[in-house]
Amino acid sequence: MATFPNSFLWGGAIAANQVEGAFNQDGKGLSTSDMLPNGILSPHQALSERTDGIKDVAIDFYRRYPEDIALFNEMGFNCLRLSIAWTRIFPNGDEQEPNEAGLAYYDKIFDELAKYDITPFVTLSHYEMPFALAENYGGWADRKLIDYFERYARTVFERYKDKVKLWLTFNEINMSLHAPFTGVGLPEEASEQAIYQAIHHQLIANAKAVNLCHSIIPDGQIGNMLLGALNYPYTCNPDDVIAAMHENNKWLFFGDVQARGKYPGYMLRYFRENGIKIEMEEGDLEIIASASVDFVSFSYYASGCASADPKQKEVGNIVDSVPNPYLEKSQWGWLIDPKGLRVLLNFLYDRYQKPLFIVENGLGARDEVNEKGEILDDYRIAYLNDHLVQAREAVLDGVELMGFTSWGPIDLVANSTAEMSKRYGYIYVDRHDDGSGTLERKRKKSFFWYQEVIRTNGASLKE
């Protein structure tokens, strides 16, 4: 088989806080991301006076979405993963009534996608939440956020039930362990006890959203999303194998709760041995057990290694790991491991026996416009080609794969560092790290490559 299933969803993935801009317009409140306008690597800025940042305009998708969606259609997309900015719907998070201007905006987005038969695939919370909830309630540390998120989910499910059938709850939910302000609205120095308690509240909210989606949109599907942080043992030393098992369990925990409906034994042991006591109310575990997701989605950019020797660890972009001597690195130091995607797909499918969806994968690189006005990003083509070949191998292995939405089909602001120079797109945006540029869109060489991949349903990929 040289192609993917006939029902395969091809497209790209974007996030509201990295493309929209218009951070304070049409009734929108400030989000935690808006309080870090120059990247999540400076979290303490959120506790001081807000400064202007590159995310405030981003790539102006808020106004330019018809042009951008037309370009996605030209590539052949039949799916676009995007997020709703929670603060466009409930500016402070705890209002009784939603902001109609925000709801109407996403109506326009979904109607524009429908013009081209592009399936919207919507994330409810993509690395942002109302800042007022973090400031006034301490973020997800407060159980009240379960009700606020449930109200938000119910509002958008009821509003868009005829327009959106594919949903995700929280983007890369396991990243709260590494960036707690971004994930759960807690200070970066928060204790493990506080982080896991907040995560418990978020997992209950996830379960309630799953059940709401199933009741309000009977023909809809809702999944979870993991950062697919696959770790290999650094050596065949059994201590390294166990170290890799522990590292993988840190993120698989989130998938186990959302797909299997219960706290796994290895996590209960970790809590016992580290003095972590999760406060639960009666019925919490029953709510979690009642709400298994329909599919498991994940991002995959790089694999890592784990070693029992702490001296082997290397500082990375948010997540630290042991470098793999058999792999090359990207310009940003991320290990390039296409075969790891096949391993991960088989690993997750064996574990959950649920359909899988690759909702983020791509290469961040510095793209240059040559004297002819071209962007010849052959390195991006090679990266994506090799990963898609391995995804196809996983399908041949028997993995049920729903689709592939590469990260950043159009250049956008990097979440971690707020750089424009770290480009992922098939579409170049004339904007730079200092905020200069015309915002003009330009097709890269990879635009036409991906167009052909979609047209042939993967048959054009090169082994």
TrEMBL record:
Enzyme Commission numbers on file: 3.2.1.86
GO biological process, one term: carbohydrate catabolic process
EC class: hydrolase
Gene3D superfamilies hit by this protein: Glycosidases
Similarity-based family: Belongs to the glycosyl hydrolase 1 family.
NCBIfam families, alphabetized: PRK09852.1
Protein name as annotated: 6-phospho-beta-glucosidase
